[in-house]
Design brief:
By secondary structure, the chain is mainly β. The chain has no helices and 11 strands. The protein is globular, with a radius of gyration of 13 Å.
Length: 119
């Protein structure tokens, strides 16, 4: 089992920055691919960004491309999401998730961290 814990959320103003962290514990492995997702009130959960186990390959939703950066420190079993130029519509609960390479579904999920952007 792998446990994921997100942190770094908070209340900020539009244009500000936040960095979210996703720390893994338990049966940790640096070979997991990790994704960030978010869910706003009344909306379905949506993909935000993902990074492969090596950290060399990343992919972003169009809505955050150019503003968010995903990275990882495998020595610390931690994945980060740097969020710049935050907008009101970025307000959501942010979740990180991990999956084994080659498997399409994410097996492990964190409990989420709230990001609120005031306009």
């Amino acid at each position: 089992q792998v446990q994921l814990v997100e942190s770094g959320g908070g209340l900020v103003q539009a244009g500000d920055s936040l960095r979210l962290s996703c720390a893994a514990s338990g049966r940790t492995s640096s070979t997991y691919n990790v994704g960030w997702f978010r869910q706003a009130p009344g909306k379905e959960r949506e993909f935000v960004a993902r990074i492969d186990w090596s950290g060399r390959n990343t992919y972003y939703a169009d809505s955050v491309k150019g503003r968010f950066t995903i990275s990882r420190d495998n020595a610390k079993f931690t994945v980060y999401l740097q969020m710049n130029s935050l907008k009101f519509e970025d307000t959501a609960v942010y979740y990180c998730a991990a999956r084994i390479p080659g498997i399409s579904s994410y097996q492990y999920w964190g409990q989420g961290t709230q990001v609120t952007v005031s306009s």
